[in-house]
Amino acid sequence: MNLPVPAGAARLTPNEVLSAAFGRAPLGRRGLDEEQVREFLNRVEMELRQSLSERAALTDEVARLRDRLSGTDGEAVKPQDAHLQAVRILSQAQQTADRYVADAERYTRDLAGEARRQREEILADARSKAVQVLEDAHRQAAMAAATVEPPRGGVDMDTAERELDYIRTSSRVYRTHLRAYLEALLRNVDEWEKSESTRPG
Amino acid sequence: MDVQRLKDNFQHVGQHGEEVALFFYSDLFVRNPHLRDMFPIGMGGQRDKLLGALVRIVSQVDDLPNLVPFLQQLGRDHRKFSVVESHYPEVGASLIATLRYFSGTSWTPELEADWSAAYGLVAKTMVESANEEAPIQPAWWNAQVVAHERRRFDLAVFRVVCDQPLSYLPGQSVAVETRLRPRAWRYLSMANAPRPDNSIDFHVKLVDGGPVSSALVRDLQVGDWLRLGSPIGQLVLDQRSPRDILLVAGGTGLAPVKAILEQLGQRANPPRVHLFFGAPEVDALYDLEDLGKRATTMPWLTLVPVSEAADAGADGSWRPGQPPGVRQGLLPDVVAGYGNWHGHDAYVCGSAAMVEATVHRLWRLGVPQDRIRYETFLTGQLGNPLGNQGEVR
Predict the structure, then answer these.
(1) Which residues numbered 64-123 in B keep a CB inside 8 Å of some CB on A?
(2) For B262-272, b where at least 16 C-beta lie within 10 A, e where not — what string?
(3) Is A87's CB within 8 Å of B27's CB?
(4) Which of B42, B153, B318 has the CB atom closest to A101's CB atom?
(5) CB distance B208–A134 less than 8 Å?
(6) Rounded CA gap, B22 and B201, in Å?
(7) What is the DSSP string of B359-377?
(8) What average pLDDT does range B83-111 have in this prediction?
């Protein structure tokens, strides 16, 4: 029941398991770094699988050698042996299928996890940019207000109102720009997602 | 029947772990190729379930008051997998062949006779309970998708209409199978109280790498057919209690809680209800719009959305995309910090970590344990209130 195992893959040793150390989870989360733990568990799983399949192969080998010693080797195949052989072949096929399914699931999990992280980054980035744009707008509005000449003697209502209008308009323009920028970003995320869901395989 | 001999033999065979289940299914399919189609392509989870059920059955073989109800439920559960009486001898033959193979020289005719007798009893109990249920309700319900709404890249809400009435208690769940992932059943909670038109709402969160949840969130379409098993679950309303109600829902744990909320709304005089709905990110509070609308017509309901990532900034500051009134923090902390839940019944559903923390906090605040009902889902997606027994086949 041998399974294909990546050639040259470094085997996990009991010492490594014993001395495994994980980083703390990122700020705001509790416990250990989930990513590191999951990666390590993957390695443990691979090692277990390989060890189990090696053990199965050795069991088969022992049975074969026993048969040879007892002189039953080389005779015509008995029906019971043929059945066991069929069971063994089907088991191998099933294990290979299981392996492919597990690999595919792991692959999508990693991919989706990565996409999720990138999405968070892009959104956080957009959020901080938006806040910055807004602060800039407030600052400029404040500066504009400060530079408006204070009315001397007779109140120049016209000028003041024109200034106010100007400030209102520019803040509206800023908001529109900001909204367009954020919507474009969200569209990007949508398209990215769509392209992922239509990607074959 | 020598019970100790059976247990000893099973312990001996069990040392081979997963190989036992692998051999069993291969033997079953070599002898009965037509049975292969009843199982999913990947069999890893299947083997775990088989071993889990076998371990439980063998360890309780001399504890019938506990074993019999388990077997009866198992028998009823298998109806939706199209298992019929004639399958049981086929499974029994492969089970005996597997035990014989791994027992090696320790296998005796007496052992074989004992195992045959024990399996016969197990099969009889399962078949009888399945047959008892058959005239009362169908093996499964066919349900057609009439609406599917993606609320976020990893969250969807969809509505199905069943081909015949499906009676359940709000808070319960059913096993669901989609043709997009044949023979892979997952538990989903009904998100509404039963309606006269037989329609049911479900909430699904996509689990990274989860084959069924990703299909239900991304690929399910209006017109698709699903199969639903019979309703199960203990997270149901204590109808006799006069106390006020605390509802706590994390993520799609909202579904059963929302069904309970609807049930409360049907009362002439609903109790006072607090509903805390939490998610890590604000935009994962996927049902806030609908809940908000309901809250305006239900004066007895207080809705508190909670998010770790909520912007607790100064009032009036512009918070991109953030609905008003979202409290910042972890769900258990916010619930515990909100007030005195002493005279309340609590219903909690969400991830294992959230549920555990919330139940613990409530208990320390003096809410008696028998007034807290809760349910967790395994991987953030599909709750299975009966552990693995519901999917053993």
Answers:
(1) 101
(2) bbbeeeeebee
(3) yes
(4) B42
(5) no
(6) 38
(7) HHHHHHTT--GGGEEEEEE
(8) 94
Domain boundaries, chain B: 3-135, 141-228, 244-377
Domain B244-377 falls in which CATH fold? Rossmann fold (3.40.50)
State pLDDT tens for residues B306-360.
Answer: 998 776 544 434 445 556 788 889 999 999 998 789 899 999 999 999 999 999 9
Into which CATH architecture does domain B3-135 fall? Answer: Orthogonal Bundle (1.10)
User: What does the pLDDT look like over B226-274, one tens digit per residue?
Assistant: 999 999 888 999 999 999 999 999 999 999 999 999 999 999 999 999 9
Q: How many CA atoms lie within 13 A of B10 on its CB side?
A: 22
Class of domain B141-228: mainly beta
Restricting to B residues 312-371, those with a Cβ less than 8 Å away from any Cβ of A are: 318, 320
Report the alpha-carbon distance of residue B70 to residue B50 in Å, rounded. 14
Is there a contact between A91 and B208 if contact means CB atoms under 8 Å apart?
no
* A109 with B42: Cβ contact below 8 A: no
Residue with token string 């066919």? B142
ipTM over 0.85: no
Burial (CB < 10 A; 0-12, 13-18, 19+), residue B257, is buried
Chain A residues with CB-CB distance to B156 below 8 A = none
> What sign does the dihedral B131-B135-B137-B141 (CA atoms) show?
positive
- The answer on pLDDT for B158 being more than 90 is yes
DSSP secondary structure letters along B152-216? ETTEEEEEEEESS-----TT-EEEEEETTSTT--EEEE--S---TT-EEEEEEEPPTT-HHHHII
- The DSSP output letter for B33 is G
Chain B CA closest to residue A179: B320
**Domain boundaries defined on chain A:** 1-75, 111-201
**Partner-chain contact B211 A87, CB within 8 Å:** no
Residues of B in contact with A1 (CB under 8 A): 19
Tell me which residue in A88, A90, A193 faces B29 most closely, judged by beta carbons: A90
CB contact under 8 A, A52 and B17: yes
In this prediction the pTM is 0.73
